[in-house]
Amino acid sequence: PDGTTKVGDNAFDDVKIKSLTVPSSVKEIGEYAFMSTSGSYATGSLRTLVLNEGLEKLGYRSFKAPRHHQG
């Protein structure tokens, strides 16, 4: 939503996302925010990622894919 300043740890764990635009209001993306153990989620299916100005901190492995899905 508009005005969101942080994406919390594990916020979108195992969620399928094909396109993601992080709004300029977001200052921080938490640890493992888009991580999955199954590979059927953000980084496994993500094709478009836009990180806007204003982002100050990316948490540890915030966009981590399982080893067998990394390119």
Quick description:
The chain is mainly beta and 71 residues long. It has one helix at 42-45, and strands spanning 6-7, 19-22, 28-29, 48-51, 57-58. The protein starts with 5 loop residues before the first strand and ends in a 13-residue tail after the last strand.
Give a written overview of the molecule:
- The chain has one helix spanning 42-45; strands spanning 6-7, 19-22, 28-29, 48-51, 57-58.
- With 71 residues, it is mainly beta.
- The strands form two sheets. The chain has a three-stranded parallel beta sheet, with no helix packed on it. A two-stranded parallel sheet has the order 2-4.
- It is globular and about 30 Å long.
Whole-number radius of gyration? 12 Å
Main sheet record: 3 strands, parallel
Q: Please state how the strands of the largest beta sheet are arranged side by side.
A: 1-3-5
Helical content band = under 10%
- First-to-last CA distance: 31 Å
What's the β-strand tally? 5
Poorly predicted runs: none
**Secondary-structure element series:** EEEHEE
The portion of residues forming beta strands comes to 15-25%
Provide a count of the helices: 1
Mean pLDDT: 81
Category from helices, strands and their pairing:
mainly beta
Shape: globular
